[in-house]
Specification:
Layout lengths: L19 H7 L2 H4 L4 E3 L5 E3 L9 E2 H10 L6 E5 H22 L8 E3 L6 H11 L5 E4 L2 H7 L10 E3 L5 H12 L4 E5 L2 H14 L5 E4 L24 H13 L6 E5 L9 H20 L6 E3 L23 H19 L5 E3 L4 H4 L3 E11 L16 H16 L6 H23 L5 H25 L6 H10 L1 E5 L3 H4 L1 H6 L5 E3 L9 E6 L8 E2 L12 E3 L9 E4 L6 H4 L10 E7 L7 E7 L4 H6 L5 H17 L5 H13 L13
Parallel strand pairs: 4-20, 5-6, 6-7, 7-8, 8-9, 9-10, 10-11, 11-12, 14-16
Antiparallel strand pairs: 1-2, 2-3, 4-13, 13-14, 13-19, 15-19, 16-17, 16-18, 20-21
The chain binds pyridoxal-5'-phosphate.
Pyridoxal-5'-phosphate binds next to α12.
Length: 661
């Protein structure tokens, strides 16, 4: 054993060669990869984009390709085939359930565009969903405006949730006039009154849906407050009143859809079943009163396993896609049979489960911060400062005791001695009694002692580990500085502690011998990833490889496709990252081609969003420089060059540019 070991190295087993299968297990790829992501035999992260055959694309190869094309990092890679595969998979899960149950109606899914509004994503979902008449869901006026022109298929639904003003309601009525099944889901009774008034103005028979306020409420982090306190939905008395109005106008068939939404990431399938049964009872009651509702819409919430089993309060998603579809189909059928009413067409609004898997954010590690340690062969001499000598003795003691298995108490004492000496050095330095060189030596000796003590503690394997050593470990772990912003790219991690799978995209055939805390570019202490998906007990750190000089180290952030890459805030004015849209193709080298690259937000656009404009900035900068030229501080030519240099920055991306020389 070296005299200056790294406690992290000891975590592995030196005797057995590390294989890609070990990496698969360590990063729990099987748990979140969902048949799409895996580690290939070269030790690279790879994707099987269709999830149906064994065509595989090596992500590290795509990344090198993008780098060679000069795409700035971080870069978000969209695997469009994964998106299509998810659309097919969800539709097939429902058709399988429908066939097996001999359910006498169809499934018509809709994609809620708020989950990822990017035009290509919406188009891709619609294209893959075409054979299934997949539709869209919108929750605001701009989303309605974006979605409406895409409703080519007259069978595909456009469901409009959210609060709707008269402009929206009129537009919905107009679209209905075109024969499109554009259904507003009315959330409040007043909205119904307004909708009926506008329909009357137009002389149209309106088509509508209502959100039913259920007694069942969701579970988990994203639970929407259901039940009586919910701000959403019509109560049972309101629904009774609404039906009376429709009857009195002679058009009970206007009410076409009943809807509920339990919130995202439903963790307990029993709650879903309960809600489905409850709404089906409402449906059956209405049917028997001459209101032939066509659609039952069970909302979104189909879960995605990001960080399975990360902690006890997050049990992960305990059901499969097929179980979800079965739960809906069989529950509706059961109630309909019991109430002897025909079955409705089924609608679900799964967003996350459709789009989360398709994108991967690739982030470069810019550097590792480790604590500076002393050389293995360092020995203090008589000439060294007394503090340095003391620390050197302590280090020697811990080293020597290595063979004799020191006790926890002895290690604790050694650590305290070191801490005191270092503290003394700091105090003397700040008072001017210690030179900078011995201070540097004292610090390096201190860190060496800390590493060694932790190593010995780990060998003792105490349970529990004393808090001071837990804390020390957090201080000693490497910080890997990553070229991205938590607030732009993984907002949910910061906001609600959502864990995302993160794994190096190469070197997975090599044991990761270090553990790191990932920190981002923002000047914010929250700009870090605070827990990780791994098979290790300690989820505070990510197992990583030591960086190599002159070699990029890229981390993949997986399952980024839902909510994250659309929600980012402009913390420190970091903008959207560059994007590459990748398609699988067995005929192409590497089994893929890059269809499109979307540049990152430029500094110019980012600044414009907060009202700084190039013309004005240029004028100010120019004035500033001209004054200095007039004062004789710089030559006019240098002034002009400085202005050009400044202005050329406007086109850059907002992130750290590793290509800049
Ligand atoms: C957000 C939302 C969805 C999508 O939920 P997921 O959890 O992403 O499936 C569906 N319907 C409504 C009404 C929503 O607000």
């Amino acid at each position: 054993m070296s005299a200056n070991p790294d406690p992290q190295v000891l975590l592995g087993d030196d005797d057995v060669a590390w294989t890609p299968a070990d990496a698969t297990e360590l990063y729990r790829v099987d748990a979140w990869g969902a048949a799409y992501y895996h580690v290939n035999e070269r030790g690279h992260a790879a994707v099987m984009p269709t999830g149906e055959d064994d065509l595989s694309v090596d992500i590290a190869v795509v990344v090198e390709d993008l780098r060679a094309r000069g795409v700035p990092f971080p870069v978000l890679i969209r695997f469009q085939d994964v998106l299509q595969a998810r659309v097919r998979r969800i539709n097939r899960a429902f058709s399988t359930a429908i066939e097996e149950a001999e359910y006498d109606n169809v499934y018509r899914g809709v994609y809620p565009i708020k989950v990822n509004q990017l035009h290509e994503v919406v188009e891709e979902v619609l294209e893959a969903g075409q054979p299934f008449s997949m539709g869209l869901e919108c929750g605001s006026k701009p989303e309605l405006i974006a979605a409406l022109p895409h409703m080519e298929d007259d069978q595909a639904l456009l469901i409009c949730n959210g609060v709707k003003d008269a402009t929206m309601l009129r537009l919905i009525l107009a679209a209905q006039g075109l024969g499109k099944p554009v259904l507003p889901v009315l959330e409040k009774y007043t909205e119904f009154v307004e909708f009926m008034r506008l329909a009357e103005e137009l002389g149209a028979v309106p088509r509508l849906g209502v959100r039913v306020r259920l007694t069942t409420s969701g579970s988990g982090r994203w639970r929407e407050s259901g039940g009586d306190r919910s701000k959403f939905g019509l109560s049972i008395p309101e629904i009774v009143k609404l039906v009376e109005v429709l009857h009195s106008r002679g058009h009970p068939e206007s009410l076409e859809l009943l809807h509920f939404h339990l919130g995202s990431q439903i963790s307990d399938i029993q709650i879903l079943k309960q809600a489905v049964k409850e709404i089906t009872q409402v449906y059956a009651q209405l049917h028997r009163r001459g209101v032939p509702v066509k659609f039952l819409d069970v909302g979104g919430g189909l879960g995605v396993n990001y960080d399975v089993g990360y902690s006890s309060d997050d049990p992960g998603i305990g059901y499969s896609l097929q179980e979800y579809a079965n739960a809906v189909v069989y529950s509706v059928q059961e109630v309909c049979e019991q109430q002897e009413v025909p079955t409705p067409a089924l609608v679900s609004e799964s967003g996350r489960a459709l789009v989360a898997h398709h994108s991967v954010l690739v982030v470069e590690v810019l550097g590792a911060y480790t604590k500076d340690r002393i050389e293995d062969d360092f020995a203090a001499s008589e000439e060294d400062h007394a503090i340095v000598q003391r620390l050197s003795e302590t280090l020697e003691w811990v080293r020597q005791r290595g063979g004799e298995a020191p006790t926890l108490a002895q290690l604790s004492e050694a650590y305290h001695d070191a801490w005191e000496a270092r503290n003394e050095a700091d105090t003397l330095f700040s008072l001017g009694y210690l030179d900078i060189e011995p201070k540097a030596l004292a610090e390096r000796l201190y860190w060496s002692i800390c590493y060694l003590v932790l190593d010995r503690v780990a060998a003792l394997d105490p349970d529990p580990v004393p808090p001071e050593f837990v804390e020390l470990e957090e201080q000693l772990v490497d910080q890997y500085l990553c070229d991205f912003s938590v607030f732009q790219s993984i907002l949910d991690h910061w906001a609600i502690g959502q864990g995302f799978p993160i794994m190096p995209i190469a070197r997975l055939d090599e044991e990761p011998t270090r553990r790191a805390l990932l920190v981002d570019l923002t000047c914010d202490s929250d700009g870090k990833v605070s827990h990780y998906v791994s098979a290790r007990d300690d989820k505070r750190f990510l197992p990583v490889h030591a960086l190599r000089d002159g070699e990029a180290y890229d981390l993949g952030f997986f399952l980024m496709g839902a909510y994250q890459d659309i929600m980012g805030d402009a913390h420190n004015l970091f903008g959207r990252v560059a994007e590459a849209h990748v398609y699988a193709d067995a005929e192409e080298p590497g089994n893929y081609y890059i269809e499109k690259i979307i540049p990152a937000t430029s500094i110019r656009d980012m600044l414009a969003s907060v009202q700084y404009f190039p013309n004005d900035l240029q004028r100010r900068m120019n004035t500033l420089i001209r004054h200095k030229v007039a004062e004789g501080m710089i030559r006019p030519k240098a002034g002009t060059e400085l202005l050009e240099q400044y202005m050329s920055c406007f086109h850059d991306s907002t992130y750290y540019d590793t290509r800049a020389k």
